[in-house]
From TrEMBL:
UniProt signal peptide: none
InterPro entries: Glyco_trans_2-like, Nucleotide-diphossugar_trans, TPR-like_helical_dom_sf
Alphabetical list of Pfam families matching this protein: Glycos_transf_2
Positions of the UniProt region annotated as Disordered: 741-769
Repeat is among the record's keywords: no
EC number: 2.4.1.-
Family matches, as SUPFAM superfamilies: Nucleotide-diphospho-sugar transferases, TPR-like
Low complexity bias spans: 747-757
Species in which this protein is naturally found: Dermatophilus congolensis
Residues covered by the Glycosyltransferase 2-like domain: 412-493, 781-901
Gene transcribed to yield this protein: sunS
Gene3D superfamilies, per the entry: Spore Coat Polysaccharide Biosynthesis Protein SpsA, Chain A (3.90.550.10), Tetratricopeptide repeat domain (1.25.40.10)
Name of the protein in question: SPBc2 prophage-derived glycosyltransferase SunS
Origin superkingdom: Bacteria
Entry keyword annotation includes Ion transport: no
Length: 1141
């Protein structure tokens, strides 16, 4: 234990408007007397607007003043204040609160090892009328990032948040009665908006709004008001009622009102979500001191899911049980919980010593036997942990290693005339398996010799026109515990190290991997992904003449292994397709009712371009009798595509409508539906007004769904650039024809209706027609400026293009010494003379606090705004309809003459946002985040016709100043408290600035520090991307290869990973492979969403194609380059070379 005298406490208080210097002085005197020698610092965050008066007072060394701002959001202000704390624990007070208890006892309690992982201490907060239980004792480095929470509670809805209850004789907070309630003038923006919406729709049954209001009151610490709101909402039997009961019961339990919570829990236990009710009951039992009952309830409880929430983390219940058992001193329950976490691989590091202590004097060999009996596949990591633990950990490790069963692993390949690729395949998998076995089925080239030279064992198998028989002969010869099935034209692209784990995994599962195939789509090359069962227990064998499938009854498990397949390239298909067609015809003749064989024959014929014959095979399939299988997604998509291609678009639409419910999650289905509707509109122009809006809705739905990782047969691009391209074409067509564009929805327009009724529907258009654009004054512009007299007037004048939607231009000046402030006043802007504290996010949030509008547009002083206010008002209304918190708009850099660069470079930036739902974080490169602390994973783009920005900040002088400023700010940020993600981002920011400054070594060092941190963040991948980019640029391909390997393990099909991989191949003189990768890329986006300039991609494709001496690839690259540059003559000449229309 740390000596008691070493633990000191910080006091945190926020001065709000109306608080005085005397109020602060009284609080400081009180806390100094109460805490005595246990006081570290009193941090006073001044948001009162009286900074000059506050700083004029002499406060002493223990008082730290922080200048802030007020935006009616006490949660945000408290988090800002906590960032300045330096002690391990802090107590949060208002200036009117008073403390009682014993500071020394509090320090002793918080110093107890049982509380070293706690985030909060729950304290009694009393008024003359009531007692509340709030988390006012906080560990600052673990403070939640949800700024909507003013008072933290011990809630069952946040299992990752750990709290301890502090006895009243140790600490109690007494609130002044006049300051214990929140007035309506103090409500944060989000509650004000919700109450306004509820008032506007009070005749309607808006239960979602009512639920959000109740939750908001709970976050503000308005317990009675929240309980009343939950009680009102709990009437009924719908999901909102059950969710309200859950939240109400949890809130009562958190406030120790156990008697009132009990009948609610009884209702929930008899309701539709008994698992979550059991979790709430366990929390209730723990609060009531019934530890044994709580532990029993958690014993076999799976991670629960609230009625209106997401499932808890896999280890949530286990960790809660462990903490409860540890605090209660129940060693057996603690031991079983720690063992469960250990063998599940959830908590290995540091577990050895704790387990040995709990195991006590029992034989260490018995502990090893218990671990072995679980058949965990983490045995080597566990043994290593015990090796590094105190004696007798080495005995446990030795027994584990001696008695664990090691399972053999063999890669199995059947091949014929695959000299082109056999060694590539073997080399990719050989490091991860015990043996590679190649079954040669009659090669006439030197496939067998090359395989043997690469280290494989080669057997010769007579070919009998039966793929299953060949595979089974190979499996018999391999005779391993695990067989990894891979074809000669495939390679292990990522996750190969997971194959080594098979040595410790009992072969009781069939493991599926992700197989990515590349193929040509018009001029471009794209990819298709499909999960396939490729890792099989040794007893499994195949059936099927051509596309052989493994027969088994084992459960399936997905593993993070990616196999890349290039067998669909034209050169390979020309050889394989006719041979496979003959075999498939024979198989179909033998089993005419086998739908899977019909599907495979149809795909074969389709790939050969024989679409009518393919459709005939698909037509034969009886969908009504099919049991659901993953391959049927590909069948539906390809069938519809084929029907459309041969002029049977109505049949295609009927097919898609029949399967809408099953495949509504598929961007491929919506993409094809969009194409079908577009084709019908082209065939029947009189129906264009009905069909084109439906086509728009389908492409939008595809974009909304994005690129899934686990959808069989998904074609990369149908959830991104391919859908975006088609959407732009159809939307422009609608505008040209004067057709109303539809409102964005989240459901398909091909639904359950028949084609005839679909043609008669105008639902989407009517929805858009009914949507009211936001009124004038709904958007404010917010800016932070300093010494911007050279650019500001032009920027402010450009903002006039937003009127009448524009309300105010809010300019937050951080200390200008030139004419900036006068320019702002002359242009009618609202000006605040703020301050600069090396924190962009703080300044942006302070600028936002100047506005009362529902939407804000963030503009820099060196940017110009080009807007269509009528269209933008509608886009903002759509955003509110979709519950968007931010909207992305196009920003393009300009050259020194102020013109947009010819390269077509631009980026999509989240500049429009709703300040009641989002705010800025990170001091250097300020980032918009949800006020609940979450980063945004979905991007909603506003059309450039509604608004776009041009940025003039790319001159040499401004770039140099920006680099110098970034270097300074990253140093400042590195010393501040931040979570792992922000700390990692700071290191990447610093590396970028250092590299731009020419300091390669220190940039590399910063990136290496970043990649050594936690991998549970987007910035981790960003750090590796920058490290690989740096190593490639600086001519160290070996180091770049290590970084790229790490990226492939995280996201093997990610566009930026492929971009870097191609450049590594070019550096290593493998131009042909690099060219193929680059041809498949339609756009390149990095981990934080920055788009590579299209011209850079086109130029790289051209360089690689020329080095590969590939004339067709050169012509394709020239087509792209011409399109990017707007050079029609170049496009025409390149198309002529390709003999393309």
């Amino acid at each position: 234990m740390i000596p008691q005298g070493d633990l000191l406490l910080d006091i945190i208080t926020v001065l709000q408007p109306g608080d005085t210097v005397n109020d602060v002085a009284a609080l400081i005197d009180h806390t100094q007397q109460w805490a005595g020698k246990k006081l570290n610092t009193v941090c006073v965050y001044d948001a009162s607007g009286n900074w000059d008066n506050i700083t004029a007072h002499s406060w002493g060394e223990q008082v730290q003043l922080v200048r802030g701002f007020w935006d009616n959001d006490l949660g945000r202000a408290r988090l800002d204040a906590l960032n300045t704390a330096t002690a391990e624990w802090a107590i949060i007070l208002t200036v009117y609160d008073r403390l009682s208890g014993d500071a020394k006892k509090l320090a002793t309690l918080l110093n107890d090892p049982h509380h070293h992982n706690d985030d909060y201490g729950i304290v009694e907060v009393t008024t003359p009328a009531q007692t509340f239980h709030y988390g006012r004792v906080v560990r600052p480095r673990k403070a939640a990032t949800d700024t909507t929470v003013w008072e933290t509670l011990d809630t069952a809805f946040l299992p990752e948040q750990y709290a301890t209850h502090i006895p009243a004789d140790t600490l109690r907070i007494t609130q002044h009665p006049e300051h214990s309630r929140i007035s309506s003038q103090q409500h944060p923006r989000r509650l004000t908006r919700l109450l306004r919406e509820a008032e506007k729709e009070k005749t309607a049954d808006n239960r979602q709004c009512d639920y959000e209001i109740a939750t908001e009151y709970q976050h503000l610490g308005e317990i009675d008001t929240a309980c009343q709101a939950y009680a009102k909402l709990s009437a009924g039997e719908d999901d909102w009622a059950w969710a309200a009961r859950e939240a109400w019961a949890d809130l009562l339990t958190s406030q120790q009102n156990l008697q009132a919570a009990a009948p609610l829990l009884e209702q929930l236990e008899a309701g539709p979500n008994p698992d979550f009710a059991a979790w709430l009951r366990a929390k209730w039992c723990a609060a009531a001191g019934k530890t044994a009952q709580a532990l029993e309830l958690m014993q076999n409880l799976e991670p629960p899911t609230p009625t209106l929430g997401t499932s808890f983390p896999e280890d949530a219940v286990l960790r809660a049980r462990l903490r409860l058992a540890s605090r209660a001193g129940r060693q057996h329950d603690e031991l079983t919980s720690r063992l469960t976490l250990l063998v599940a691989g959830m908590e290995i590091q540091g577990a050895g010593k704790k387990l040995l202590n709990l195991w006590g004097k029992r034989r260490p060999e018995d502990l090893a036997e218990v671990i072995l009996s679980t058949r965990t596949n983490h045995l080597e990591d566990i043994a290593e942990e015990f090796d590094h633990s105190p004696y007798p950990g080495n005995l446990v490790a030795r027994v584990i290693r001696q008695h664990r069963q090691r399972y053999s692993v063999a890669a199995v390949i059947i091949a014929r005339d695959e000299a082109r690729c056999i060694q590539r395949c073997i080399n990719s998998i050989k490091p991860f398996v015990d043996e590679v076995l190649v079954a040669d089925t009659g090669s006439e080239d030197n496939t067998a010799e090359l395989a043997q030279a690469a280290g494989a064992r080669v057997i010769h198998v007579p070919w009998t026109n039966n793929f299953a028989a060949a595979r089974n002969t190979a499996l018999d010869a391999a005779a391993a515990d695990w067989h990894v099935i891979i074809d000669a034209d495939e390679t292990i692209a990522a996750g190969g190290r997971e194959l080594r784990d098979l040595h410790d995994l009992s072969p009781e599962f069939v493991l599926t991997v992700n197989v990515i195939s590349s193929f040509r789509l018009g001029e471009a090359t794209t990819t298709e992904s499909e999960p396939q069962s490729r890792i099989l227990p040794g007893s499994v064998r195949y059936c099927g003449l051509v596309h052989a499938t493994p027969e088994h009854d084992f459960p399936l498990r997905q593993v993070q292994i990616t196999i890349e397949h290039d067998g669909y390239e034209p050169e390979q298909l020309a050889e394989k397709l006719p041979r496979r067609e003959r075999l498939l015809h024979a198989a179909v003749n033998a089993e005419p009712n086998n739908a899977y064989l019909r599907y495979q024959l149809g795909r074969n014929l389709e790939t050969q371009g024989r679409l009518a014959e393919a459709a005939t095979q698909y037509d034969t399939i009886d969908f009504a009798t099919l049991e659901p299988e993953p391959w049927q997604h590909i069948l539906i998509v390809q069938y519809a595509h084929t029907l459309t291609s041969i002029g049977r678009s109505v049949d295609a639409l009927t097919l898609l409508a029949a399967h809408t419910d099953r495949f509504d999650h598929s961007p491929d289905c919506h993409f094809v539906a969009g194409n079908v509707l577009l084709d019908l509109a082209t065939q029947q122009p009189d129906l264009a007004a009905e069909l084109l809006p439906q086509s728009v809705a389908e492409f939008r739905r595809a974009l909304e769904l994005g690129e899934p990782d686990d959808l069989p047969g998904h074609v990369t691009g149908r959830g991104s650039h391919l859908a975006a391209r088609n959407l732009a074409v159809v939307e422009q067509g609608c505008r040209d024809l004067g057709i109303q564009l539809p409102q964005q929805t989240t459901s398909s327009s091909v639904g359950d209706d028949s084609p005839s009724s679909i043609h008669e529907s105008r639902g989407d258009s009517e929805e858009w027609a009914d949507l009211t654009p936001l009124p004038a004054g709904s958007l404010d512009v917010v800016m932070i400026v300093k010494n911007e007299e050279a650019h500001l007037a032009q920027t402010l004048e450009s903002c006039e293009s937003l009127r009448p939607l524009l309300g105010e231009i809010c300019v937050y000046d951080t200390g200008s010494t030139d004419n900036t402030q006068q320019i702002a006043r002359d242009h009618g802007a609202r000006l605040e003379q703020g301050f600069w504290d090396d924190n962009y996010s703080r300044a942006r949030n302070a600028a936002a606090a100047m506005s009362n509008s529902p939407w804000l547009l963030v503009v820099d002083a060196d940017e110009r705004v080009f807007a269509n206010p009528t269209e933008l008002a509608l886009e903002l209304a759509k955003g509110e309809q979709r519950n968007d918190e931010t909207l992305y708009i196009e920003a393009a850099p300009t050259d020194t003459d102020g013109k947009v660069r010819a390269s077509g470079e631009y980026w999509m930036s989240p500049r429009l946002y709703r300040p009641d739902l989002a705010s800025y974080a990170r001091p250097v490169h300020a980032e918009l985040r949800s006020k609940k602390g979450k980063r945004y994973s979905r991007e909603t783009h506003v059309p450039r016709t509604a608004i776009r920005l041009e940025n003039d900040g790319f001159g040499q002088d401004r770039i140099k100043a920006s680099i110098a400023r970034a270097l300074h700010l990253t140093d400042v940020a590195a010393t501040s408290r931040a979570d792992a993600s922000d700390s990692l981002a700071v290191l990447v920011d610093k590396a970028r600035a250092l590299w731009s400054h020419g300091d390669v070594e220190h940039a590399r060092e910063a990136l290496q520090q970043a990649t050594a941190m936690s991998s549970s963040t987007t910035y981790y991948r960003w750090a590796y991307q920058w490290l690989a980019r740096l190593e490639l640029t600086e001519g160290t391909p070996e180091a770049a290869a290590e970084a790229i390997d790490a990226l492939k393990g995280m996201a093997p099909t990610d566009s930026y990973t492929r971009w870097l991989e191609a450049h590594l191949l070019l550096a290593n003189k493998h131009a042909s492979q690099a060219s193929k990768i680059l041809q498949r890329l339609d756009e390149v986006v990095d981990a934080v969403g920055l788009l590579l300039p299209p011209e850079d991609l086109a130029e790289a494709q051209l360089v690689a194609a020329r080095q590969a001496d590939d004339a067709r690839a050169v012509a394709q690259a020239l087509v792209r380059l011409g399109q990017v540059r707007g050079d029609d003559e170049l496009v025409h000449k390149a198309r002529a070379a390709l003999q393309l229309p």
